[in-house]
Write a structure and sequence with these properties.
The complex is a heterodimer of chains A (411) and B (223). Chain A has 411 residues and is an alpha+beta fold. Chain A has helices at 2-16, 18-56, 70-77, 85-94, 130-133, 146-150, 160-167, 216-222, 245-259, 271-314, 316-324, 329-366, 374-400, 404-409, and strands spanning 60-65, 100-107, 112-113, 118-119, 122-126, 138-141, 155-158, 176-179, 182-190, 199-200, 203-204, 211-215, 234-238, 266-269. In chain A, α1 (2-16) packs across α12 (329-366). Chain B has a six-stranded mixed β-sheet with strand order 4-5-6-1-7-8, with helices on both faces. The longest helix of chain B has 16 residues, at 162-177. The chains are: A alpha+beta (411), B alpha/beta (223). The A-B interface holds A 1-2, 5, 12-13, 16, 317-318, 320-329, 331, 404-405, 408, 411 and B 37, 40, 42-43, 62-63, 66-67, 69-71, 75, 77, 79, 81-83, 85, 94-95, 97-100, 102-103, 142, 146.
């Protein structure tokens, strides 16, 4: 009850000096807004990183063929056959049971067309188990089967965008699509992939919306390719839960290096390591930004202390009077402390508003994803409350030490 | 030379009875203010004892002194010392906040006091919207609101014109008749003569302490 009264008194005192209070509050507002928007940008980036890496598969190890000029490839091919199905076979033999291995090959086309439209999609030859390895979902039909590959069936699965370009709103399942000179039958359509970026920590991640998938065996058998080209672009190794990724990545690397006769024409990507790397980056980002934002909170706190000291001087007479009618020292110090807290907390509240608008502006105009988490709001408010408390204590103590006799004489 | 301790008061010994109306007089520098601070529990004597209602005030700590000021003493100052930004109601209510009186009780008590000092219609006015006499009545209301043992007034008419000053003194008389104990500090013999007893200070000592006999009911007849 008495506490409520003290809060009321503190607030009404602040309202008496609106300009002064709001100027003092500015420091807190900017500090909290800075902390909050930095944290939200960091959290947004972190969340995006996580979803990108999930896309690559946290239990996956990717073996990718490196890109070279044709002349260089010619020289490399004298020693190394490049990434081939032979590598897949070799890996099957050394990797533990339960490991899934998928291969992928892109085919460069000059035309993709249906009865209704054209598309500029990538044509990817993959194994039947690929959707599991790459986290793909289907909305129409189903993915092709291992048998389709073995029998070199000309079937395909369309990404969302490819489907739209080729068939618009018309049914696509069972319809023919012409890829270069060959006709393929649509057996499935993929769900929309919401990735906005196609690169993470410098590693390419494929957006599948515009892709068309055909059985790898069909692609390799029916289309010609340059003799120096890799037979495969990528091998995706999905390891069982109980296997250590780094250990197996080393095994894979050694195996592929031996079949490639130690020619460095492939790279190994471990998404889990990328995740670790991104967390590290984010920690540093948060630390640096947090430190910068804390400086403005510190300045805000000093502003509060300054104004509270001025207020103590200005209200000496009031302090004396309150003491004369029965206020204890701690009643006086509580009153001043509550005022300091009220400034910092209302500053924090406004700062949360400002920070949220900054972060939504950032995501609108800079295109960065931002996430305001409850933790970051609590952190910002908690820190500003402690700033208010720390910088309010000295003026409050000073106020409580004012001698009532002196204070009443003070006019 | 070094610092020298000045004894503002020496050999002071007197007793005030309940419902007594006492004036403390003396020229400036005579120790009036110090005596008043001691009586008002704002200051503790370096030596000597001060009993208020059988409580040894001079041995109390700061918190206990605050409680005594809140419960037992009602201050009225020459310069009113009202909270400038608060309404008359808020000013009168103030001591009740520090004695943690529940809200409903606070409200009824404050209104009761405001009507007693004839300011019910001014409850929401700020000091700046009130006349000097009204301000001093707000201050008296504030002093009375906790039913103190002593009403302690320091030159209560010093900042008022003589007509308003008389009004305030009549109010004191009325409060005295209702049973309040009043200690009034003044340098004006015309005011002192309205009281029961005058204590005269000089150089920190009591020069004279005597009952006022020739009152002739002049306080009632607006001399």
């Amino acid at each position: 009850m008495f506490f409520a009264e003290s809060v009321k008194i503190a607030l009404s005192n602040l309202l008496l000096h609106k300009l002064r209070t709001s100027l003092t509050m500015l420091g807190m507002i900017f500090g909290v807004a800075a902390v909050l928007s930095m944290l939200s940008i960091g959290a947004g980036a972190g969340r995006e990183a996580l979803s990108l890496i999930r896309k690559m598969g946290l239990r996956n190890v990717l073996i990718r063929a490196k890109a070279f000029e044709d002349e260089e490839l010619g020289i490399i091919r004298q020693d190394s056959p490049g990434l081939t199905r032979h590598d897949v076979q070799a890996l099957r033999q050394v990797l533990p049971a339960g490991t899934r291995i998928n291969a992928k090959k892109e085919h460069k086309t000059y035309q993709i067309a249906s009865a209704m439209g054209r598309a500029d999609s990538r044509i990817l030859g993959v194994d039947a188990g690929y959707p599991l390895a790459a986290n793909l979902e289907l909305v129409e039909g189903s993915f092709f089967l291992p048998a389709d590959g073995l029998r070199h069936h000309q079937v395909c699965v369309l990404g969302k965008t490819a489907r739209r370009k080729l068939f618009g709103l018309n049914p696509a399942l069972g319809e023919p699509v012409k890829i270069d000179a060959l006709w393929f039958t649509v057996v499935g359509v993929l769900a929309d992939q919401l990735l906005e970026k196609d690169e993470f920590e410098g590693v390419k991640i494929e957006s599948v919306n515009n892709d068309i998938y055909v059985p790898l065996e069909t692609l390799l058998a029916k289309y010609e390719r340059k003799p120096v080209e890799n037979e495969l672009d990528e091998i995706i190794v999905q390891l069982p839960q109980d296997q250590d990724l780094s250990e197996q990545a080393a095994v894979i690397s050694g195996m592929v290096a031996s079949t490639h006769r130690n020619i460095d024409d492939f790279s190994i990507v471990v998404p889990e390591r990328l995740l670790e790397q991104s967390r590290q980056t984010q920690r540093i980002f948060n630390l640096v930004m947090g430190a910068i934002a804390s400086i403005s909170l510190l300045v805000g706190g000093i502003g509060i202390m300054n104004i509270m000291l001025a207020s103590v001087l200005e209200r000496t007479n009031e302090i004396g009077l309150r003491r004369a009618v029965g206020a204890r020292r701690r009643d006086i110090s509580r009153q001043f402390l509550l005022e300091a807290l009220a400034i910092s907390l209302s500053g924090a509240a406004l700062g949360v508003l400002l920070g949220s608008s900054i972060s939504s502006l950032v995501s609108t105009y800079a295109g960065w994803p931002t996430t305001i988490t409850g933790v970051s709001v609590l952190l910002a408010v908690g820190v500003s409350a402690s700033v208010g408390l720390v910088f309010g204590i000295y003026p409050a103590r000073k106020a409580s030490r004012v001698s009532p006799i002196e204070a009443l004489r003070y006019e | 030379m070094g610092r020298q301790t000045i004894h503002a008061l020496r050999n002071i010994s007197f007793q005030v009875e309940e419902n007594e109306y006492v004036a403390i007089m003396g020229p400036s520098g005579s120790g009036k203010s110090t005596l008043m601070n001691v009586i008002g529990c704002l200051d503790s004597p370096t030596r000597g004892k001060y009993f208020l209602h059988q409580q040894l005030v001079s041995a109390m700590n700061d918190d206990e002194l605050a409680r005594v000021r809140n419960q037992e003493i009602g201050f009225v100052f020459q310069t009113f010392n009202l909270l400038a930004r608060a309404s008359a109601y808020r000013n009168v209510e103030l001591p009740l906040l520090y004695s943690r009186v529940p809200r409903a009780q606070r409200r009824s008590r404050t209104h009761e006091i405001l009507s007693q000092v004839e300011l019910s219609d001014r409850a929401n006015h700020r000091p700046s919207q009130l006349s000097g006499g009204q301000r001093q009545r707000v201050a008296i209301g504030r002093a009375l609101v906790n039913r103190p043992s002593i009403l302690l007034a320091d030159e209560p008419t010093g900042n008022l014109d003589s007509r308003t000053g008389r009004e305030i003194l009549n109010l004191f008389d009325a409060l005295h008749r209702k049973g309040n104990t009043i200690v009034l500090v003044t340098h004006d013999p015309a005011i002192a003569v309205r009281t029961d007893r005058v204590i005269e200070l000089l150089d920190g000592e009591i020069r004279r302490d005597q009952k006022v006999s020739a009152r002739d009911g002049e306080s009632d007849s607006r001399s």
